[in-house]
């Protein structure tokens, strides 16, 4: 590497390795996953993704807060959950047809690692253990999301 140049992949590997979501993952898998990552920032009010769009990414929130919203006819956008620094956002990329089922909007300025999930799915075709490791990490997130939605539905449609 030329003097004065920063090795961006090395920096991403360190950031990925330090995130709690990836704790215990082998260095080889950290290397694989980091190869699919990039840093991104989102201004307050900016959408990370919109309902119906292709879901080919997930996000490790480093700073800021993101609201998950559903459009409810007659009511507009309704917040169903949120994510903050240290959280992971997005699991629709795991399930075909790989579409987002909500909007994700930055409530305040957000910095995040964004993972290209087409890249990840391709990598674990060659390394099923990586796929298994990722599913083990995402299933609890899916459960949390479903529970939050359940509670939100109780608030909206609960009995009097």
Overview of this protein structure:
By secondary structure, this protein is of the alpha+beta class. Residues 1-7 have low confidence and may be disordered. It contains 4 helices and 8 strands; from the N terminus they run H-H-E-E-E-E-E-E-E-E-H-H. The strands form 2 sheets. The chain has a 4-stranded antiparallel sheet. The chain has helices spanning 8-18, 27-34, 117-126, 128-157; strands at 37-42, 47-49, 57-63, 65-72, 76-84, 88-89, 103-106, 110-116.
Sheet with most strands: 4 strands, antiparallel
How many strands? 8
Strand content: 25-35%
Low-confidence segments, ≥5 residues, pLDDT <50?
1-7
Task: Tell me the structural class.
Answer: alpha+beta
Rg, nearest Å: 17 Å
Cα separation of the termini: 67 Å
Fill in the keyword field for this structure:
160 residues; alpha+beta; four-stranded antiparallel beta sheet; disordered N terminus
């Amino acid at each position: 590497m030329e003097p004065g140049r920063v090795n961006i992949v090395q920096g991403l590997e360190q950031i990925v390795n330090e995130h709690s979501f990836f704790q215990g993952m082998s260095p080889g898998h950290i290397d694989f996953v980091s190869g699919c990552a990039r840093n991104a920032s989102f201004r307050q009010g900016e959408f990370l993704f919109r309902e119906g769009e292709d879901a080919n990414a997930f996000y490790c929130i480093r700073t800021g807060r993101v609201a998950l919203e559903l459009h409810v006819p007659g009511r507009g956008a309704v917040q169903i959950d949120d994510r903050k620094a240290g959280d992971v956002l997005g699991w629709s990329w795991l399930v075909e047809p790989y579409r987002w089922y909500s909007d994700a909007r930055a409530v305040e300025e957000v910095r995040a690692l964004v993972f290209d999930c087409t890249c990840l799915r391709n990598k674990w075709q060659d390394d099923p253990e990586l796929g298994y490791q990722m599913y083990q990490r995402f299933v609890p997130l899916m459960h949390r999301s479903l529970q939050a939605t359940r509670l939100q539905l109780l608030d909206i449609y609960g009995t009097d």
